[in-house]
Design goal:
Pfam families: NfeD. It comes from Nocardiopsis algeriensis. The chain has about 150 residues and is of the alpha+beta class. The chain has 2 domains: about 70 residues, no CATH class; about 60 residues, Nucleic acid-binding proteins (OB fold (Dihydrolipoamide Acetyltransferase, E2P), Beta Barrel). The protein is built from 3 helices and 5 strands, in the order αααβββββ.
């Protein structure tokens, strides 16, 4: 059996493995194996085929893969759970101070505390959620208090 046929079998095996793992590494190695198969089909010695495979694999892993990963990481960042509430507006239901309070946030009642220890926020005030600390919304008034 010629060496280029073995390269094709290796390329097919790596391609199938890539389908199941979705790492993109095995796919790049499959392409490198195709490069080895091409060199073998041209009648070049096995040492040149291995060198071609190694060069193609290195180029794929160290050049192509970082470019693809950088492009795939550019999607919108989607926050979920309590972290999605940071930056939203709420209404104070029960006076909020440094230790306690209650706000209506996204249709639910949340325990709340003021981010400023000396600030007391009266009921009815619109506030912004600065952070979520456990099950407590840390808030700050949207408008200056009278």
């Amino acid at each position: 059996m010629d060496a280029w046929v073995l390269w094709l079998i290796l390329a097919a095996a790596l391609g199938i493995a890539e389908v199941f793992t979705l790492t993109f590494v095995l796919g790049l190695l499959a392409v490198a194996a195709l490069a080895g198969a091409l060199l073998g089909a041209l009648g070049l010695p096995v040492a040149v085929q291995i060198l071609g495979f190694t060069a193609a694999a290195a180029a794929g892993i160290y050049v192509v893969r970082p470019l693809v990963r950088r492009q795939s990481d550019k999607g919108p960042r989607v926050l979920s759970g309590a972290q999605a509430l940071v930056g939203r507006s709420a209404v104070v239901l029960r006076q909020v101070d440094a230790d306690s309070g209650l706000v209506k946030l996204s249709g639910e009642e949340w325990s709340a505390r003021s981010i400023d220890e000396d600030m007391v926020i009266p009921a009815g005030t619109h506030v912004d959620v600065v952070e979520i600390d456990g099950a407590t919304a840390v808030v700050y008034p949207r408008e200056p208090l009278p």
